[in-house]
Known about the structure:
Oligomer: heterotrimer
Structural class of chain B: mainly alpha
Strand content of chain C: under 5%
Radius of gyration of chain C: 20 Å
Helix content of chain B: over 70%
Amino acid sequence: xxxxxAVSAGYGSFRALFDVxxxxxxxxxxxxIGPNGAGKTTLMRVISGLISPRAGELTMEGRSLAxxxxxxxxxxxxxxxxxxxxxxxxxxxxxxxRIGSFIPAARRHFAERLAWVYELFPRLEExxxxxxxxxxxxxxxxxxxxxxxxxxxxxxxxxxxSAGLAPQVVEQVFDLVRRIRGEGLxxxxxEQNVQQVLDxxxxxxxxxxxxxxxxxxxxxxxxxxxxxxxxxGL
Amino acid sequence: xxxxxxEAVVNGLLLGGVxxxxxLGLNLIFGVIDVVWIAYADLVMCGMYGVYWLHAYxxxxxxxxxxxxxxxxxxLGLLVHLLIIAPVLGxxxxxxxxxxxxxxxxxxxxxxxxxxxxxxNIGVRLPVIELGGIFISYARLIAFAAAxxxxxxxxxxxxxxxxxxAIRAISQDREVMGLMGVDQRRIYLITSAIGGALAGLAxxxxxxxxxVHPFIGNTFGPLTFMICVLGGLGNMLxxxxxxxxxxxxxxxxxxxxxxxxxxxxxxTLFIVLMIARPRGIxxx
Amino acid sequence: xxxxxxxxxxxxxxxxxxxxxxPVYFLHMLIQILLWGFxxxxxxxxxxxxxxxxxxxxxxxxxxxxxxLLWNYEGVxxxxxxxxxxxxSALLALVIGYPCFRLKVVGHYFALVTLALGQVVMLTIVAAxxxxxxSLGMTQKLAGHSWYALQFPEKGYFYGVALVVWxxxxxxxxxxxxxxxxxxxxxISEDEEAAAAVGIDVMREKLRVTVVSAVLTALGGALYVQYxxxxxxxxxxxxxxSLQIVFAAIAGGMYTPLGxxxxxxxxxxxxxxxxxxxxxxxxxxxxTIYGILLVxxxxxxxxGILGLFETLRARRxxxxxVAAQ
Lengths: 234, 284, 325
């Protein structure tokens, strides 16, 4: 579904990604792990169109994403849950969800989409009128995921969903990701929390200093000596 | 109560309507999308000149002149955003203030160049109603009604529609808007056009009551900013109420002493409020 | 104290010699450039650190009207009343500045407060029309050539006063920069909390630069109307003046000491040029151009003309350094 071939990208004179190639097939859940500053967030931003790649090919369902502005990429079926949630703090939960379905294709089905999201996340429905900035960290993460789902995406990008959350809350969030997968969504997750993300993805890539260092199924990576030592403390 | 004081109060209420209408557009631009158009009042001035020239000089029917002025200032709003604001959106907001400061300068001087400094009146005399010894200007009554309608319509638009929600969101996190499928540029342009149109609407109603001259913007410009801040930036209802508080200060102050001193009082109040409660009197 | 740059000494000598060689018309221009340059410099002391004030007309107005009123009504010499007006401006700056800085009213909100302040002063002057003449303005009582009244029909004397004051402005710039001053304010303008964390007394530095700026602006306003022998609330206190100050400082470049004076050169030259070219009937032409230029400068050249030179020089130096490796 999503394919990156030899993609390079950066900010100004600073290069963050070098020759990155990865693939996500329909229905899969793929993880990207790696340390801070490895370029994981840059990778997400390149895919969702906030940054243009300097080199390489980027395609979604066979169609190139080169030069497509961020707001058009949403129409191609890619939704990005940004790092740190980035909810609109002074809008209500429901208004945040509403913005998520801004594109015409989603707007037509707003009511049923909203019902679906509320069904997935009943806590959001309880707090529908509350200002998003006053939600707890975990609730904000759920709201941000819900907001992304409102646009009826085929591929969901999640940037560090566990960041800043307590362990039990992280569990809950990842449970939700499992449920979303169960509904047929394809997911690409970028994470520092290696243990938990390997539990929910089929495959993963290790990104270090802007390049892919390792790739494999989650079982393979879990057994990999380097990863066990460097990222799981074993 | 002294009949003249009562008249001052009543006319203060009606002036409040005019000020509330003026504040609408600015509240949208400054309060909601957080863009500083220091030259907002001068856009209104342009609208007033538009109405004047189309009606008094070219003889267009008043209603048509007003519609043309509203459309004209809406276009002006678009241009302001495209040419002046968009290039400096990324930098500190003070740059927007300074750049539109240049626009203020330009508009006032250009108007002086074109029309000279004389006061011009469109020559429309709307009836003055008499209610129990008090004289009420019909024009102000219309302005009051228009302000009420405008505020309600804008409020509903912002709260209920997709576009309105996006407009409310964009000042809170501009970058993320793209991820929602929202074209930032379009939102800014649409809002700028609506803000301009509201300024044009205010211009039409002001033209009915006041003479236009190039510097008329200086008389109600700072006042309009004050009203927006007082009512809480972006708070349509707050701005509405604040307009009436300010107008009463001016009306009653003007009754007891000179007009200038009542403005001095109003501005001093603004300074105190900006410092004490920058989120406005209705802040949560 | 650092040795004076030879170019500066030559320039200074030239400036001192000028009134003896130059025709009166140019002297008139020079005096205006020096006085306005001084005022723009005073504004830039604050402006260059991001404390943009749109209400310096308030201080100019106080500086202009207090001595003039005291002279006309009580015969008080400007030598006493000008310092008084400077003190009043300092107090006003403190009264507004302290709560603003304390409660973190900064950036464009601060600018709006100063805008309102300028209006308050201007409207008060107009409201007191019985003594100030309101919008029609007023003139000082003539006293011929008098040091006591600080009035000199011969421009040469005023040139001397203007030159001294202008140099004083540059010296103040230097003084503020010395010691902790400049670094402290730079740090404050970038990140107040970090600056406070390193022990910089944020409040004191901000208040100091604000008060100095206000006091010098008042002095500039006082001298300007002493020279013109005419005051008008719009001319010294209106929004127009406040914006003109900002424009000139930005256009000339407010990050270097001579930048604002370049701005004065620009504004005076522009006004005169337009007047000569189009005649006096072209009211408002200069301001129209200021307006467009301000917009263009903010967008393309926010560091002003001198700032542009600085950037080019830095770029050339960097290129030379890279080439040398």
